[in-house]
Structure formats: structure tokens, C-alpha cells
Amino acid sequence: MxxxxxxxxxxxxxxxxxxxxxxxxxxxxxxxxFKRSRVDFQDLLYTTLRPAGTTVAQGITVPTGxxxxxxxxxxxxxxxxxxxDYMETENPLDVVIExxxxxxxxxxxxNIAYTRDGAFKRDGEGRMVTSDGFxxxxxxxxxxxxxxxxxxxxGTVSVTLPDGTISEQGNVTLxxxxxxxxxxxxxxxxxxxxxxSGEVVVGTxxxxxxxxxxxxxxxxxxxxxxxxxxxxxxxxxxYEVNSKAITSADQMLGIANNLKR
Length: 261
What we know:
By secondary structure, the protein is an alpha+beta fold. The chain has two helices and 21 strands. The chain has helices at about 1-25, 225-255; strands at about 35-45, 45-50, 55, 60, 65-70, 70-80, 85-90, 95-100, 100-105, 110-115, 120, 130, 150, 155-160, 165-170, 175, 185, 190, 200-205, 210-215, 215-220. The strands form nine sheets. The chain has a four-stranded antiparallel β-sheet, with no helix packed on it. A three-stranded antiparallel β-sheet has the order 13-14-15, with no helix packed on it. It has a two-stranded antiparallel sheet with strand order 1-6. β13 and β14 (about 155-160) form a beta hairpin. α1 packs antiparallel against α2 (about 225-255). The two termini are about 20 Å apart.
């Protein structure tokens, strides 16, 4: 009976993590470039009371055994990198990736981070930077006298000067990994590669399997509110059922304790 208490408790802890993950998804429903997470579970070890195939008489074996499980645990919170919806902004520095790839930004410590958030700005030096001021690794600087900015589908950044001439300022490159789910989320819409994600491959938008760029659009979160609400209800009911299992196990222990009365 004690086993049932711990088994049901493991279910409650697992569903609490599930609820935490769903809550984070919903809180980022309007976060640009956000990718929803999913919790994966697996059952725990089993106590084998009688192995399958045990011989009970000459030439006779039991077809099934007796095993009792010890509950559940979460084994991963996987980022789902499906494409989010596009939102038109008409801002020339808003860029969306149509397909595979990440923008590459330089962190203050010199490391490179990757993001799907293309809401870029210009800093005091004219560089294209993220909302936190992290510049693109391509070191693209837009001159202050530019009257228009154009970003091509292949990442070419051009500006129109007051005299009507067009000047090319650089090219936005993209990075990709073999296993996007293995990236380490840093917050601020940033990711860093790990051994699980594989080595980063850098390339030109529209070539070698990389997505193309779209100017004046942003990629919204891929969170689907209705789906997350359903997941929340499922997690809540599973939590409730496990709590009732603990209550029932406690009541059965109480009956056993009161047998001598």
C-alpha cells in the first residue's frame, strides 16, 4: 500500500511540471519567435513479482508475469520548432525567416547565440541589433543618411542614399543545426548550441536548405491557445486523479490499522 502512495505522488509531481510548461507556453503566446515546449514522460522501474515464462509444471509456463510499476517521471521538455504565423509590420528592420535557420547574434561575452526573433533595430552606431542591443555577427551598419533600407530574400542589405544611389551594406547569414530540439534556451528569445544539437552550419538565405528572408514581417509564437488550454485541463485532471489515489491508499491503510479494534 505504501508503494501506491509514492507512485501517485510521482504522478502529481510530473503533472505539476506539465502545468508549469503549459503556463510558460501561454505566457509567451505573443512573444516574437517563441517556440512552445512539450513535456515527455516515461514510466519508472518495475518490481517483478513473477517473470513471464515461469515454469509452473512440466512443460507448462505462464504466458504473462506479474510486474508492478513505481510511477512516472519527466524525461525532457522539448522545444517544438514548427513555423509560427507571420505578422506584417511594415517596419523595414523587421525580418522573418521563411523556412529553416536562425539569425546569429553576438553576445557581450563573445559567444554567438541564435534566434528566430527578427525584430531588429539600429543602435547609436547604426548597427543592426536585437531589442537587447546584441549585434548581428554579420556586422551590418546602416548609414545615418540612408533614406530607405532594403533587405532581400537572400539577406542582402542595401540602403538608398539622399542622391538616389543604392549602396550595399552587407549580407545577413543564417545558422542551423541538425537537432534544433537540442539547443539550450537562454531566454530573451536566444538559443545556444550544445553537443546534442550538433555543429552549427552557416549559409546564405535561400541556399543549401536555408529559408529565405521576408522584410517587414515578424514570426509570431507557434503557441496555439486552444491546444494549450486542452493540455492544461488534461494536466489538471491527471493531477486530481493522482491525488485521489493517494487519498484512497491512505484510507486503505487506515482500515488495516483499525482491524484489531
